[in-house]
Amino acid sequence: MARKPVAARITDVQQGIVTQNEFAKLLMLTSDGQVEVNPPKTDDERRDFELHRKGRFGRTLSLQAKSALQLIQRTKGRPRLGIYIGEMRGRPRASRSFYYLLGWFDPVIMRFRDPVFLVPSLVLYRKAMLRKTGRYWHLNFNASVDPGSRDKWAPYQVSQKELGRRLIRLMDALAGASRKR
Amino acid sequence: MGTDAPGRVREAGAAALSYVQQGVIVQDEFAKFVTIGTTGQVELFTPVSDDQRIDVEAQIKRRFMIPLAIQVKGSSVLQRNHTLLKITFDVSDEAWVSHDLFYYFFAHLNPAWLGVVDPVFFAPSAVVHRHADPKRRANGHRQIEFVASIEPRSRDQWTPYRLSQFDLGTRVRGVLEQARRRRVQAAAIPSPLFRVPGVMWGGIAPPGGR
Q: What value of ipTM does the predicted structure carry?
């Protein structure tokens, strides 16, 4: 029987904490400190962070981080990033200001590998086949990590260095849309 | 990359990060290195309250393990043409505890590399405290200046405590196991250590426990 990769033996909780912190780090560093990253006191709504521009009040952007410690290697084709999101008791709510951040955290280098994916919840639930089985809702995110890929997730690829700036643009666009209403 | 003073080189992006953000990032990096480096066998507890006192729950867990306190210090600035890591900080009398189970972690946060870069330093408090300025500052605190070469071939006083981030977990675990072998008891930890701002507590989980 193949030995499990050493780092894959960390618990799901440890993986969640480490990768959330890693995303938070990327958000702070790549926005030059302009994005404030606030984790919730309780994790009841499946949102890992509320983000806002430093010094500004008003609309926030919600973010849910999801990661995999290894890629899916099929017999044919290139490896893919597969992330299963399940055991959701109620149908997850989608919003224009709710995004998912998904990535491959490689334990060997203790970092995410490029690209990561910044996907609007509205898109993720539609394209990742959100469905209910038994009592729970679940979905499967399965994307190519090839930068030249043209699959349905390709438009949501973003390099780690671009992440902060991309989020600032998103927050500015959301704030602008709110003002127009 | 810019220079903010003669001989001081600041990495791109560093100027915009607040000290609080830098502190959080370096602390999280430390947690990552230890969690992955020990395959999750060393658990870390951080204070959650705003006054940065140690969480009570962490102290309850301490009953099952021998804890190790670590003070995390980072800098996004290197000196002397990227060869020296210099970190200056004050220590109050309350936090002035030299103990086998109290260590310092020093690291360079390089924003251009999106994280802490090698080498990092993991040194016992007794060794670090020996480098305190004998004169007290106006606020009564003692000041410590940590200056270490990050050159791979350097042979300075901090070389024995220099290591790769990939080896940090093993080193932390080694310190804990050594303390267990020497039968250092949790009760022997001076109580002021529990009130040191920024201190993280770690310990080896009991067999079979997660």
A: 0.85
